[in-house]
Structures are given as structure tokens and as C-alpha cells.
Design a protein that fits this description.
CATH class of the largest domain: Alpha Beta
Strand content: 15-25%
CATH topology of the largest domain: Rossmann fold
Order of helices and strands: HHEHEHEHEEEHEEEHEHEHEEH
Helix content: 25-40%
CATH architecture of the largest domain: 3-Layer(aba) Sandwich
């Protein structure tokens, strides 16, 4: 169903029936847009109040549904403050976590074992818990741009360079959660996956973002692979991808970006499978993946994303080692993250916040 929805709203699905469905979805997006706009105006004018806490709050969010790369950015922000010896906690809604921690939380817990991750619908209550019980000195609000009940000292807004505006329409006709004019609230705009588009596309996107958010520093980033890792925490060099055929699969919001990352590492991708975003792998899925892996060349490397591996917890498929591509947020150029770091550091002196360096 999710795959059909994406092919429909992206325009890939053709025909009279698909056109009629897109028309109906566009009609449905009108009340959605009114509701989102009204809610933002209520907060902007102070008719709905945001609750401020005693420590800096940094929100990492976006304008669209799907994968813009929030998890590597949240990890980057947490590492920035941990390197300053500050106690950090992550707060998130926990979408897809009906039966336990969701995949983003599992990845963050694996990569940041010293950063607690609190999940729940009431993030104001979570913030108080983090401060009072965990003595947190900085809070990172994961996927928080539209969650305005908790006041923040910095809104980090991610825009995916490969699909910046959610096919140009509000949900459900497109993937926009709110109008792109919402970027006016951003404290810094992070363009992700800039290495996967041309220089001309980046320049055009920078112009669009600068018109929408002239007040916000703009940084260009990439999701840089750093190594391969398995479920037993063994690691392997990325050079392995260029020496054998690669069979890959994933269940993320932007699967083509994952494929592109592999090919950019010199991988010859002989097979590629996709599942819906946040897919909860069943026993049947695992058996199907084993049959699929068995059909690939005997010397192939089977690779997935870290978000998928933390749910599968398998070391191999049909006797073939299973690796995850571990990535980090990196500047497109060495100096690109400088303005981002300055904004993060500036939050520590925000009025009303008390942060002590250990």
C-alpha cells in the first residue's frame, strides 16, 4: 500500500484512474493544509503556548514525510554536545514503536550508548523527566519541527536535496507536512544528500531555500559511509563493496538514496529489494530474504541499512554474511559544517538556560 501511494503521488503511476485519485487526494490536502496553517498561526501569535524548560532544546526536523536523514543528524548533534562533556538526552514521539523501540531509537542507542532516548507522545513531560531524573543538560528533540508544545532554542530543519519539496504538494496529495513557508521558523537549514545531485541542482535549491528562510544559515551535507558493521558489532572496510557483487535491501523512506550511496562506493549492485519505511520484519520476510540471498552469486556481499539490521539482528542470510552500511552526517566540503556548529554552540548561552561544563 505504501509503495503504491508513493508511485501515485510522485506521478509515476499513469492512467485515468491514477489521475482521478490524485485529484481526490489534492482535494483532501486542502483541509489538511488549513489545519496545519491554523495550528502554526496559533503558536506564532501566542494563542497557543510553548512550554520552555531550564536547559537548551535543539529540534531536528523537516517539512516532509519520509526519509530526509534525521537520524544521522540527531547523532551528529548529540556527539557535538557529548564532546563538550555535557549530558544529553534524546526525546522523540516514537512512531512505529507500538511493540517496543522503533528503528531510529535502536540505531541511536547502538551508536550512542551513553545518550538516553526517551519516547512518548508528551514530549514536555519527557523533557521534565530527562532534566529531573537523568540530570540532562541538553535535550535533542527528534522529528520536532511540527511539535511546537516544547519550546526550542534552535530549529534544525533538514531538506533532502534529492526530493526537497515532497512532490510539490501537501499530504495526502504529496509528502509535505506543511507549507515550505514554514522554513521561516528555521534556525539553520541542513541540505542533506547534496552529493547525489548536480552542482546546478544544489545552486537552484540554495536559492529557493534562501528566499524561504533568509534568516537561517544554510549548510550542505552528505551521508558519508564510514564502515560496514554486522549484528555482532564486527566491522569491515568499505573497500569490500568494490571487490564482489552486492545484493542490497532496505525498508527506509528513500531507498534510491541508499542504492546511490552503494554505487558511489564502487559497488556493483546485482540485486536490490525494498520494503516500506519502518517495515517490521516477520519470520516470513526473513525466510523470503534467505531464499532471495540464496539466488545471488555465491561470492556476493549482502548489505542493508543500519535501521534494518537493528530489527533483523541476523549475522547472515543463507550462509552469506549480512552487513549494514554505517553512515555519518558530513559536510559536503570540509568547512560546510562550521555555521551549523556555531549555531549549536550558541544555544548553550541562550537566555534562561543554565548549562555547566563538567
Amino acid at each position: 500500500m505504501e509503495e503504491y501511494f508513493y508511485t501515485l503521488v510522485s506521478g509515476q503511476k499513469r492512467g485515468v484512474g491514477a489521475s482521478l485519485l490524485r485529484g481526490l487526494l489534492r482535494l483532501a490536502s486542502v483541509p489538511y493544509g488549513w489545519a496545519a496553517g491554523l495550528r502554526n498561526r496559533l503558536f506564532d501569535r501566542g494563542w497557543k503556548r510553548s512550554e520552555r524548560v531550564a536547559v537548551p532544546v535543539i529540534s531536528v526536523g523537516n517539512l516532509t514525510l519520509g526519509g530526509t536523514g534525521k537520524t544521522p543528524c540527531v547523532e551528529y548533534v548529540c556527539r557535538f554536545y557529548r564532546d563538550l562533556d555535557l549530558r544529553v538526552a534524546i526525546l522523540s514521539r516514537g512512531y512505529g514503536a507500538e511493540h517496543g523501540r522503533n528503528d531510529e531509537a535502536l540505531v541511536l542507542e547502538e551508536n550512542l550508548p551513553d545518550v538516553p532516548h526517551l519516547q512518548g507522545a508528551d514530549r514536555v513531560a519527557l523533557a521534565r523527566t530527562a532534566i529531573e531524573e537523568l540530570e540532562s543538560e541538553v535535550l535533542v528533540l527528534d522529528d520536532g519541527f511540527q511539535h511546537r508544545r516544547l519550546a526550542r532554542d534552535l530549529d534544525v530543519v533538514l531538506v533532502d536535496a534529492t526530493d526537497p519539496w515532497g512532490f510539490g504538494y501537501l499530504f495526502p496529495r504529496g509528502l509535505l507536512r506543511e507549507s515550505p513557508r514554514g522554513l521561516q521558523r528555521a534556525g539553520v537549514v541542513v541540505l542533506t544528500r547534496c552529493d547525489q545531485v548536480s552542482q546546478e541542482q544544489r545552486a537552484g535549491l540554495r536559492q529557493q531555500v534562501s528566499r524561504l528562510a533568509p534568516q537561517a544559515p544554510l549548510v550542505e551535507t552528505r551521508h558519508g559511509p564510514v564502515e560496514l558493521a554486522n549484528s555482532e558489532q564486527r566491522t569491515e572496510s568499505l573497500a569490500l563493496l568494490g571487490t564482489r557483487p552486492v545484493a542490497a535491501f532496505c525498508g527506509i523512506g528513500n531507498p534510491e538514496a541508499f542504492r546511490r550511496t552503494l554505487t558511489d562506493q564502487g559497488a556493483a549492485v546485482c540485486a536490490f529489494r525494498t520494503f516500506p519505511d519502518h517495515h517490521p520484519y516477520s519470520r516470513g520476510d526473513v525466510e523470503e530474504l534467505r531464499r532471495w540471498a540464496q539466488q545471488q552469486p555465491a561470492d556476493c556481499v549482502v548489505v542493508t541499512t543500519q535501521k534494518d539490521l537493528v530489527k533483523l539482528r541476523l549475522s547472515d542470510l543463507a550462509g552469506r554474511p549480512l552487513w549494514a552500511l554505517r553512515i555519518r552526517l558530513q559536510g559536503l566540503a570540509e568547512e560546510d559544517l562550521g555555521p551549523f556548529d556555531e549555531q549549536l554552540h550558541g544555544c548553550l548561552g541562550a537566555a534562561g538556560n543554565s548549562v555547566s561544563f563538567n
